[in-house]
Design goal:
Layout: H1 3-16, E1 23-24, E2 34-37, E3 40-46, E4 87-90, E5 107-116, E6 127-132, E7 138-143, E8 146-152, E9 158-161, E10 169-178, E11 203-208, E12 213-220, E13 233-240, E14 248-253, E15 258-263, E16 269-275, E17 292-298, E18 301-307, E19 312-315, E20 318-321, E21 324-325, E22 328-333, H2 347-359, E23 364-367, H3 374-383, E24 386-390, H4 402-419, E25 425-432, H5 438-454, E26 459-465, E27 468-470, E28 473-475, E29 487-490, E30 506-508, E31 515-519, H6 538-552, E32 558-561, E33 569-570, E34 583-584, H7 597-608
Parallel strand pairs: 22-23, 22-32, 23-24, 24-25, 25-26, 26-29, 28-30, 29-31, 31-32
Antiparallel strand pairs: 1-9, 2-11, 3-4, 3-5, 5-10, 6-9, 6-11, 7-8, 7-10, 12-13, 13-16, 14-15, 14-17, 17-18, 19-20, 20-21, 27-28, 33-34
Helix pairs in contact: 2-3, 4-5, 6-7
Bound molecules: (2S,3S,4S,5R)-3,4,5-trihydroxy-6-oxo-oxane-2-carboxylic acid.
Length: 610
C-alpha cells in the first residue's frame, strides 16, 4: 500500500467513524493502553416491556432505570434496585449464566460500580474512554446517569469519551442491552447460531492523554528484495485523535535495531517507511509465526505491540503466501467454547479450539460468521493460523434499506480497524450465502469497495453458493466475482443432496481466481454408529467426507477448504430430540470434545496437502 493509499484509508476510517457526540474511535490495541478493567460482577435484571426506558405512553423517559434512583425518604416510590439484584460475569453471555435466560431475547439492564482513584488517574487534561469489546446486540450506555451513547451490532468494539461524566471516587455505569432480532438488523431475523445476549467482551476504562495515538499501521508493502529478507521496507502510518502537527513519535523495533523519531503533519498523521538494512527480517507464516515487538512512544504514552510481516496475494488461480503457493487446510469455527458451549472471550477459550484445529492438521480457520474477539485473533496469530474474518451479512439481509447498509458498513469498518495489524488475517469476508438480486449486488459491491479502500493489502472474499446444477455440472455464477480476489462457495453434497452424486460431479467456475470451499459437511451424533447410509451416524458423516474430499480435489484452482464445522454448536434451528437437542451436529468434534470418525478422514487428506 502506498502512502497516498494509507492516507486515504485513515481519512476514510475517520469519515466513516464520524460519531455521536461522546462516541470516539476505539483506540487501536486498547489492551496496551493504561486501563482499568470493568469486567467482573455486574448487577442485572430483566425488563421485558422496557419500562425502564419508555413511559406508559411509550415515550422515552428522563427518569428511566439508568438514573439508578434510590428512595430518599420512606414514602418514596422506586420500583427497582440494581444493588439488590443478582450479579453475572462480564464478559459473558446471559444465556448460560442464568437458567431462566437461556432462550431470552429482549432487554436486560446491567450495572457496575467502579472507583477512580490511585489505580487509574488521568494526567492533566487527560481523557477517560469507556471501551466495550462487544455487546450483543444493541447497547445504550449511561455513566453516572448520563447517556454516553447507543451502539448496534453484536461483534465489534465501541468507545465513548466519558471524561465529563466521571469524577474521582465512586462512579457507576449502566447499560441497557437488547438482543431482540429484527428484520433490518445485521444479521437479520434468522441465522443458524445461538443469539447469545449480553456484554460478551471486555469492558475497560481507558486513561489517555488529551492527544493520543488513535490508530497505527505497521506492515510490509512488498516482499523483501533479497532472499534473506535484507532491505525490507516497513510501511508505518499513525493517526492521533486530533489534528495536531509537530508531535514527536518514536517507533522502536528492538530486534530489528530500528529506532526512529518522526513528527506528525498538520492532520496529526504520519506516513513513513522504515528500512531494516541491519538485520534479516523473518516473515510470519504458519510454519514460523514470527512476531516482532514494537514500541510506539510519545509524551505521556507508550504502546507495545507484536507485529508479524507477511505478504498475501494471488497469481491467476494460485494463492501465494510470502511469494510461495499455499493450500489452506482450513476449518470453520463459531465463537463458542469447547465443553461449556458459551460465548468465548479469552486466549484460554481460544486455545482449546485452536488445539483441536491443529490436531486436524489445519493452518487456516474461517472465523464464522462475525468478527471474533481480539484475544482469539491474537492467540491464533501467535500460534500460526491464517484467518478469514467476516461480518454477519448472512442470508437474507434488507438489501434496500440504507440504514441496514450503514450498519453493515460500520461493522466492516470496525472489524478492519481493530485487526488491520494482524498478519494472521488474510481474508476479509463480506457475506455468507446471500440470494442474488440487483439490490444485493449493489449492497455487496459498495461493501467491497469500502473494504478495498480501507485495506488493499488483504484479499476480499465472501461465501457464495453454487447457482446451477444440472446433468451433474455445478456452475458458479455470481456478479460479485469482479469484487472478490478469491472465489469461495459453500456446498453440501451428501447432506442436502445425495452423497452418491459426488463422484459424478463436475465444476464450472469461470473465473481466473483461486477457489476456496468455504463450507461442506454433514451432521453426526458423536457415539452413534451404524451403516454409512444411516443419517446422523458417524459412519454417514465419515463417508460424506470421503466422497466430498475426492470430489473437491478435482476442482481446478482449489486453494483451500473449510469444512463446516470444528465443533457442534448451539442453534435454535436444530430441535431434533435425542440427536440435535439444540445443537448443529456438523462438528468434527462434539461439543464435549469427542472426535468423530470423519475427523480422521480429513486429517489424512490434509496430511497429503502439506
Ligand atoms: C450453511 C451456513 C451455516 C449453517 C450450515 C448448516 O450453509 O452458512 O451457517 O450452519 O449451512 O449447518 O446448514
Amino acid at each position: 500500500m502506498n502512502v497516498k493509499n494509507i492516507m486515504m484509508t485513515l481519512a476514510l476510517v475517520a469519515a466513516i467513524g464520524a460519531k455521536a457526540q461522546k462516541e470516539v474511535v476505539a483506540p487501536q490495541n486498547v489492551y496496551a493502553r493504561q486501563t482499568m478493567s470493568l469486567n467482573g460482577d455486574w448487577h442485572y435484571f430483566v425488563d421485558q416491556q422496557e419500562q425502564g426506558y419508555y413511559d406508559y405512553r411509550m415515550n422515552p423517559t428522563n427518569w428511566g432505570y439508568f438514573v439508578n434512583a434510590k428512595p430518599k425518604k420512606p414514602s418514596d416510590l422506586v420500583e427497582y434496585d440494581f444493588d439488590a439484584c443478582p450479579t453475572m460475569q462480564v464478559p459473558g453471555d446471559w444465556n448460560t449464566q442464568d437458567e431462566q435466560l437461556f432462550v431470552y431475547e429482549g432487554t436486560i439492564w446491567m450495572k457496575k460500580d467502579f472507583e477512580i482513584g490511585d489505580g487509574l488517574r488521568t494526567t492533566d487534561n487527560g481523557r477517560f474512554l469507556l471501551y466495550f469489546g462487544a455487546v450483543n446486540y444493541e447497547a445504550i450506555v449511561y455513566v453516572n446517569g448520563k447517556k454516553a451513547g447507543r451502539h448496534v451490532g453484536g461483534f465489534t468494539p465501541f468507545c465513548y469519551d466519558v471524561t465529563d461524566f466521571v469524577h474521582e471516587g465512586k462512579n457507576f455505569v449502566i447499560v441497557k442491552i437488547d438482543n431482540k432480532r429484527h428484520k433490518d438488523n445485521v444479521p437479520t431475523l434468522i441465522f443458524d447460531w445461538w443469539n447469545y445476549g449480553g456484554i460478551t467482551r471486555d469492558v475497560l476504562l481507558v486513561s489517555v492523554p488529551e492527544t493520543y495515538v488513535e490508530d497505527y499501521s505497521l506492515r510490509l508493502d512488498a516482499l523483501p528484495q533479497s532472499a534473506d529478507g535484507k532491505n525490507s521496507v516497513i510501511d508505518f502510518s499513525l493517526k492521533l485523535n486530533r489534528p495536531v502537527a509537530g508531535e514527536a513519535v518514536t517507533v522502536t523495533f528492538p530486534e530489528l535495531k530500528i529506532r526512529r523519531t518522526f513528527s506528525t503533519d498538520e492532520n496529526g498523521c504520519l506516513h513513513e517507511q522504515l528500512s531494516t538494512k541491519k538485520s534479516k527480517l523473518e516473515l510470519w507464516s504458519p510454519d514460523n509465526p514470527k512476531l516482532y515487538k514494537v514500541l510506539l512512544e510519545r509524551e505521556g504514552e507508550t504502546i507495545e505491540d507484536e507485529i508479524g510481516f507477511r505478504i498475501i496475494e494471488t497469481r491467476g488461480k494460485q494463492l501465494l503466501l510470502n511469494g510461495k503457493p499455499i493450500f489452506l487446510r482450513g476449518v470453520c469455527s463459531h465463537e463458542e467454547t469447547a465443553y461449556t458451549s458459551r460465548r468465548c472471550n479469552s486466549a484460554a477459550d481460544a486455545d482449546t479450539l485452536l488445539s483441536w484445529a491443529r490436531s486436524l492438521g489445519c493452518n487456516f480457520i474461517r472465523l464464522a460468521h462475525y468478527p471474533h474477539n481480539e484475544h482469539a485473533v491474537r492467540e491464533a496469530e501467535r500460534q500460526g493460523f491464517l484467518l478469514w474474518s467476516e461480518i454477519p451479512v448472512y442470508w437474507t439481509i434488507s438489501w434496500q434499506n440504507e440504514e441496514t447498509y450503514a450498519n453493515a458498513e460500520r461493522q466492516l469498518t470496525d472489524m478492519i480497524r481493530r485487526d488491520h495489524n494482524r498478519a494472521a488475517i488474510i481474508i476479509w469476508s463480506l457475506a455468507n450465502e446471500t440470494p442474488h438480486s440487483d439490490a444485493r449486488d449493489k449492497f455487496l459491491g459498495r461493501l467491497a469497495q469500502t473494504a478495498r479502500s480501507l485495506d488493499n493489502t488483504r484479499l476480499i472474499s465472501m461465501a457464495m453458493e453454487v447457482t446451477g446444477a444440472s446433468n451433474y455440472v455445478n456452475r458458479l455464477q455470481d456478479n460479485m466475482n469482479k469484487y472478490v480476489d478469491v472465489v469461495s462457495f459453500n456446498q453440501y453434497i451428501g447432506w442436502y443432496r445425495d452423497v452418491n452424486d459426488a463422484p459424478k460431479m463436475k465444476w464450472e467456475i469461470p473465473y481466473e481466481k483461486p477457489v476456496i470451499i468455504s463450507e461442506f459437511g454433514g451432521g453426526a451424533k458423536a457415539g452413534l454408529h451404524g451403516d454409512k447410509g444411516q443419517r446422523w451416524t458417524e459412519e454417514f458423516q465419515e463417508n460424506l467426507y470421503r466422497e466430498n474430499l475426492a470430489m473437491l480435489d478435482k476442482i481446478d484452482g482449489l486453494a483451500g477448504t473449510c469444512p463446516w464445522v470444528l465443533k457442534d454448536f448451539r442453534s435454535p434451528r436444530r430441535p431434533l430430540p435425542g440427536i440435535q437437542d439444540g445443537f448443529n451436529r456438523k462438528g468434527l468434534f462434539s461439543d464435549q470434545g469427542k472426535r468423530k470418525k470423519a475427523l480422521y478422514v480429513l486429517r489424512e487428506w490434509y496430511e497429503k496437502k502439506r
